[in-house]
Amino acid sequence: MKSDKEKIDKKTSAEAAMKVKPVFEREYDTLNKKLADKVAIVTGGDSGIGRAICIAFAREGARVGIVYIDDDADAKETKKLVEEKGSEALLINADISIEKNCRKVIRQVIDKWKQLDILVNNAAFQFPADIEKIEEKNLLKTFRTNIFSQLFLVQAALPHLKEGSSIINTTSSTAYTGNPFLLDYSSSKGAIVSFTRSLSGMLNSKKIRVNAVAPGPIWTPLIASTFPDETLDTFGKDTPMQRAGQPAEVAPAYVFLASDDASYITGQVLHVNGGTIVNG
């Protein structure tokens, strides 16, 4: 004979007996794409991870504002790739380390498409050096590009974001593991983690989600242009997967966080790093 406690447990664990039923399936539109009718801004969108994000967003139906600095050839190629996916792209050449330029970026996108749903703060700068060789101008450029721009862009974007909008910031595995040759870069990426967590709490009442992606060693032009040639052959070999990742392997994380699939996720960091286990 079962005890009263066992009877109670059986009753409360049966879904059929629940007055308020769990939602086990949402509407799933097989005809529309995950980001259909959305407008996104991707900084550093001309190459590397940024280009992969732009292409992945376009495949899911989003129109994309591609923000870049100076590299017109790469930016035009990304625009072409986005348009080949059947979407629209807007090229915006801007130094987003300067506040007024961030306001101009948002204004151009709003002027063109009259809306903004997704902001991806992805642009970054790094200058590998021992601490004794870190120059003030490079330190300022690193922080202004990597973290100041994120704050400036969010400030400018907020009046146009609405319930269901998504902000995604690119941090780095170096924020968690450190890197002895990227001291200032790693520090700026750590600031992005704190920024993401704090901003998510601030925007919860507006129902705007804020998350981040922390890529590990990903093969991009930034790596090829700033790391010593003798280190490139072994780049990423120290991960559990023993290889560097590709931008196309990171971009799906941004699609997930931008879409309704991640509707119950905010203030979090997704780690796309080849298997390295980190806390946080």
Automatic annotation (TrEMBL):
Keywords: Oxidoreductase. InterPro entries: NAD(P)-bd_dom_sf, Sc_DH/Rdtase_CS, SDR_fam. The keyword tRNA-binding does not apply. One of its GO terms (molecular function) is oxidoreductase activity, acting on CH-OH group of donors. It holds the Pfam family adh_short_C2. Belongs to the short-chain dehydrogenases/reductases (SDR) family. This is SDR family oxidoreductase. It comes from Emticicia agri.
